[in-house]
Amino acid sequence: MDKTQPKKRTVVGQWKALQSSVIDCRQCSRLFEHTRRVAKEKRKAYLDQEYWGRPVPDFGRPNVSLLVIGLAPGAHGANRTGRMFTGDRSGDWLYRALCRSGFANQPTSENREDGLCLVNCSITNVCRCAPPLNKPTGEELLNCRPFLLETIRLARPQVLLALGGLAWKAILNLESSLEWMKIPRPKPTFSHGDRVQLSAGSRGRVPRWLFGSYHPSQQNTFTGRLTEPMFDKVFSDINNTISVSPGGRANKNQVSE
Ligand code: SF4
Q1: Residue 152 belongs to a domain with what CATH number?
Q2: Within 10 Å of residue 128's Cβ, how many Cβ atoms?
Q3: Is residue 4 part of a domain?
Q4: pLDDT tens digits, one per residue of 9-54
Q5: How many domains does the chain contain in total?
Q6: Is the CB of 71 under 6 A from ligand 1?
């Protein structure tokens, strides 16, 4: 072996490097200032807590069957706790559903030391910094796109689950950057419970799918637009898709903190 050659990073090494780059990113000054301001002012209920107040890294590990893709961290949820969908009502809904469907070891998610592990699943957002009014600008989404691409490249999911129309659109917009992605024309529009095949299974490769679900935001869950049975059905369909594919459940029992 030539010891003068720099060592090639493992996939796990690349995943860790990606998370460090996310945490250190300061590209969107509006979002950086907002996350710092929220972290300083805090919500009354969390005055004794140290907010994360930075870009939030992915939760999970590379090489999983399911990648859940949301919009952006909650100001007093992930922006406080530093872990995707952790510490707010949206997260309560998501992790209960993930646990019921076998993708998480427990239904609760409070902080980074609460013992929660994902099973064959990772979670990301199209925008890694909490935006004012939960609305990232087009430019901010574009700035964050390379992180989304790298997460998908390393996670190698068989199923991508878009939580909401913005995540759905952001995923389909990656077609020109992911050589395996071939989207039917006209481009499918977002609808809760729908799924679209993104790549055909050939030469030992499993087909990849995009699933859509309403985001478990309070706006959707309080109004009954998204109910728990509706959410469970999406994960049940995802489980069925993974289980019928060759090797689909091969790494089902691997967990990540
Ligand atoms: S939104 Fe993304 S690109 Fe913008 S500062 Fe946060 S991590 Fe960086």
Answers
A1: 3.40.470.10
A2: 28
A3: no
A4: 899 999 999 999 999 999 999 999 999 999 999 999 999 999 999 9
A5: 1
A6: no
Backbone φ and ψ for 47, nearest 5 degrees, come out as -60, -30
Domain holding 158, by residue range, is: 11-256
Query: Across the chain, what does the average pLDDT equal?
Result: 93
Entry field: residues in the chain: 257
If you measure from the C-alpha of residue 143 to the centroid of ligand 1, how many angstroms do you get, rounded to a whole number? 6
- 10 Å CB burial of residue 16 (0-12, 13-18, 19+) is middle
Q: Which residue type is seen at 31?
A: L
**Kind of pairing between the strands at 159-163 and 195-199:** unpaired
Q: Is residue 2 part of a domain?
A: no
Instruction: Ligand 1, residue 143: give the atom nearest the CA.
Output: 3
Does residue 231 belong to any structural domain of this protein? Answer: yes
Asked if the structure places residue 232 within a domain, the reply is: yes
Question: Distance from the CA of 127 to the center of ligand 1, in angstroms?
Answer: 6
Look at the pTM and tell me if it is higher than 0.85: yes
Q: Which of 28, 30, 145 to mutate to test the pocket of ligand 1 (most atoms within 8 A of CB)?
A: 28
Ligand 1 near 127 CB (within 6 A) = yes
Amino acid 205: pLDDT: 77
| Residue-wise pLDDT tens digits, 152-204 | 999 999 999 999 999 999 999 999 999 999 999 999 999 999 999 999 877 66
